[in-house]
Amino acid sequence: MSYSVAIDGPAGAGKSTIAKLLAKKMGYIYVDTGAMYRAMAVYFVQNNVNPDDEREINAAVTGVNITIEYMDGVQQVILNGDNVTGMLRTEEIGSMASKTSKYAAVRRKLVELQRELAKKTDVIMDGRDIGTTVLPDAFCKIYLTASVDARAKRRYDELAQKGEKCDYDIIKKDIEQRDYQDMHREISPLKQADDAVLVDTSDMNIEQVVECIENIINERK
């Protein structure tokens, strides 16, 4: 039996950071959904699919198979049997992914592939609709959140450490706007699944959050 963990929550809550650390600590596969969208974009580029033609996109997705593997602890993204990890971060692929991720057919195909991954191995997946839409049957669901002020401060500190100029009030406003958009979008809006455990990280450090969620997962088992 494979175990799947769904971690949802608003922007800036630290979902990806926590999910990756948990996966490494517990021996799960971290499913990078963003990388899967980019791998789909690689296929479109390789097959000269027009990103502005929805009918072409709809026809093309049927020929795509994407999976994620780990080699020496490093994530590898496999597209139709070929390792395309080194191609995912190019500007061309990023642009194609941005243009095509809006299509319902692309999303349906990737959800199907993500569910297939979850059937075969223990996975941790993070996003905004994993527990409600992508993996509604996940054995453990976490809704990871923090106050707007806490998330804004973390982002401010992160940018300041990099030497970038930043304005706390602007960062906070951006987070509030992102929250509203995510919670009110038509397709799979952000919300806590009925059976998800709420974890508020406002007053917790990363190590405390990882330990907290690890305990929840082990209790569920």
Automatic annotation (TrEMBL):
Main location: cytoplasm
Cross-referenced Pfam families: Cytidylate_kin (PF02224)
Enzyme Commission number(s) from the entry: 2.7.4.25
Entry GO MF terms: kinase activity
Domain Cytidylate kinase positions: 5-218
This protein's record includes keyword Kinase: yes
UniProt keyword annotation of Acetylation present: no
UniProt-listed Gene3D superfamilies: P-loop containing nucleotide triphosphate hydrolases
Protein family membership: Belongs to the cytidylate kinase family. Type 1 subfamily.
The protein's name in its UniProt record: Cytidylate kinase
Gene that this sequence comes from: cmk
